[in-house]
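fold-stage: in
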Amino acid sequence: MKKIMNEKLTITTSNPVRARFYEYPRFTYPWHFHSEYEIIYVEKGKGDCLVGDSIIAYSKGDLILFGSELPHSMQSPPDNGEESDNEEKSELKVKGVNIQFEKDFMHYSISQYSQFIPIRNLLEDACRGIKFTITRSGKIIKLLKQIPSAKGADQIILLLSLLQMMAISNHKKYLTTSHYTPSPSIMRNERMEKVIAYLNKHYTESIGLDEIASYTAMNPTAFCRYFKENTGKTFKEYVLDMRIGYACKLLNSSMMNISQISATCGFESPVHFNRIFKRLTGMTPTFYREQME
């Protein structure tokens, strides 16, 4: 896992919104997170977006909402350096609108007033990251481009209008797996970061407690207590959540059968996989796949 940066934005309760146009030769900002929400509109460009436990492609016309504390990084395609011609370098250019707003933006109104229920649900769901395809939605694009230059209450009103449009959109897709839960305390803890980095690579394998505890220089008993204090879950629960999250992704995006998915995700047998999947999701893997079709 790449080193993650805790980005500090110049946003305060008295100045809760930061909106701007961007135009770069390519995206270069590293893997990071921040407490504020972030909206990125891609007017030009394409590449991959690292978000939470997933990698998704982005392209012209995409609008992406990142929730508070959600790790992410926009990645441009590789640059071949001096060998690249002007046309190829032009293709790598990125352009669009970036909007960031504080975690508690209009918190009382959004949490209390029924008129804001769609926006409240949208911001709650943003913890998984959401991509909207708005290529043909001229109304949203026009509104987006007004926000950076708007002042005072006009900017707030425009942002609320944008959030309402996003909330009722039928063209959206969640970016992380269904079991992904951002854990800011982990992101800021170097010792836990080593553990999570190891798990991200090996969670589908059999991992012994002695082996994983060695990353924290603790005995297994102390490690289990430490792990639960930092994640809110036991080590076993955390690994099972990761495996089920990966299984959900495979059920939704691959042609693998249940037995193949069970083995790929690290379960000892299809029977064990089915039992754990139903316990954690409330449905069997087969029914889950049918619902996603």
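fold-stage: in (second)
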Amino acid sequence: MCYQCGPATRRSFARFLAAGAGLTVLAACTPEAPKAAAPSTAPPSPAAVTASAGPTADAATVGQPPEAASPTPSPSATMARQFSLDDPASQWVIVNKHRPLAPADYAPADLVRPAVAISASGEAVLLNSTTAAAAEAMFAAAARDGVAMVLASGYRSYSTQVTTYNGYVAARGQADADTASARPGHSEHQTGWAFDIGDGGGACSFQPCFADQPAATWAKANAYRFGFVVRYPWMLHPITGYYYEPWHLRFVGVEAATDMAKRGIGTLEEYFGLEAAPAYL
């Protein structure tokens, strides 16, 4: 996978989309339209990271070498017992095209507005309290490195997802809508554990070129230190069910995110030993 895609990679990505039925890249994230980092080393061993679900404030490590294709791991049995993969209030809940939320209209009980720069409006400015605290620490660390990051889309309720998804169905038909928008009850945004970032300059929001923006490259290199993963990585849509979204971050806790980074595991499905979910059942 390649998060820091150069012009040649973007051209290849464009050809891939053209050859691959022309499906849109704006997959699980269908938000309302929202209004330089130097390279360094790969992430450290998680031996130095305590088993914490919250953010860390270590010095920034900007830049990582491109990862190899994600392996088929044997997930950590010890870590897998820490949190539920089914409870939407759990930081390890897995929501995808095979795993809807239960209940479908789940709403977090602890939604708050994080103290970060925000380009969203309405309910989309909210996150659950754990994710909000981690986001505040991450945005502050990015700012110390001279990288401006904004919250472009946070919480999305079941009723909002109904409206969003139905709009896609009306405009494109259901088959195409399923490539561009999560069905109601299947969106990570509904859990409060996920959000989309934008670059402070507003460039390339929700577009493939966002991968080249400072906010994306910084997040790709550093988000794990605050408990976040890029949920829909490059070329792993046959597993996640969604095309590359360098803007969509998901909180899973520092320990799990660091372990995934160290082991080069790209998806939560692989990390927790779950089946791929390329399409709805």
